[in-house]
């Protein structure tokens, strides 16, 4: 394996599960959103305000390319990273890709108290999440080695399931 890469929608638990997986595997953990914020010196809502979504996506593409050069890290991506072809190629080539799946209902519950996701500042966040998932679900699946359900399962259980199923994957 090169890296272990988590993809999926907002609220799927990429950051949460990624941190736990890295601890379990004793590997460094990198979170693309966090790395972009560190590099920019500004938070994601600020980047969206000043540079628009295209500005954020350019920063994200550069960061994904950089992070996929690592060898032996657990990488949590942003929910929209799969929207660009170049990112999907880099992620697929960068290691094992795990799609953390969550229903829209769970995503809504897990993101409702957090104001840090500019795309959810809409009148109807549930509809936004549903529309985004309709577009992105096939893209997550396109690059995934594993699809893992996170609904009604605490993070620890999701981690154990991932480790178990990774061990059963044939070499690529
Ligand atoms: N399996 C789970 N069960 C219940 N709550 C969870 C689960 N996974 C994550 N959460 C909670 O959901 C919230 C969002 O999780 P997290 O930030 O890890 O999502 P994310 O996929 O990284 O989202 P984003 O794409 O916006 O970065 C957090 O409060 C986290 O504690
Ligand atoms: O789903 C998305 O497009 C996003 C998810 C977050 O991880 C951040 O990358 C940002 O808020 C955009
Ligand atoms: Mg995250």
From TrEMBL:
Keyword Ion transport applies: no
Record protein name field: Shikimate kinase
Oligomeric and partner information: Monomer.
GO molecular function, one term: magnesium ion binding
SUPFAM superfamilies: P-loop containing nucleoside triphosphate hydrolases
Compartments in which it is found: Cytoplasm
Residue positions binding ATP: 11-16, 117, 153
Pathway: Metabolic intermediate biosynthesis; chorismate biosynthesis; chorismate from D-erythrose 4-phosphate and phosphoenolpyruvate: step 5/7
EC number(s) per entry: 2.7.1.71
Gene3D superfamilies xrefs: P-loop containing nucleotide triphosphate hydrolases
Binding site for substrate: 33, 57, 79, 136
Organism listed in the record: Pseudomonas shahriarae
């Amino acid at each position: 394996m090169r890296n272990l890469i988590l993809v999926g929608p907002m609220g799927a638990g990429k950051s949460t599960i990624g941190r736990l997986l890295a601890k379990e595997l004793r590997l460094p953990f990198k979170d693309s959103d966090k790395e972009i914020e560190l590099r920019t010196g500004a938070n994601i809502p600020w980047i969206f305000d000043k540079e628009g979504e295209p500005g954020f996506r350019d920063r994200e593409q550069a960061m994904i390319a950089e992070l996929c050069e690592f060898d032996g890290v657990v990488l949590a991506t942003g929910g929209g990273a799969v929207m660009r072809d170049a990112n999907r190629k880099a992620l697929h080539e960068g290691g094992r890709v795990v799609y953390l799946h969550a229903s829209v209902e769970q995503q809504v519950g897990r993101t409702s108290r957090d104001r840090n996701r500019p795309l959810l500042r809409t009148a109807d966040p549930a509809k936004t999440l549903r529309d985004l998932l309709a577009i992105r679900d096939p893209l997550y699946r396109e690059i995934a080695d594993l699809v893992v359900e996170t609904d009604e399962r605490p993070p620890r259980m999701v981690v154990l399931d991932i480790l178990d199923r990774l061990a059963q994957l044939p070499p690529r």
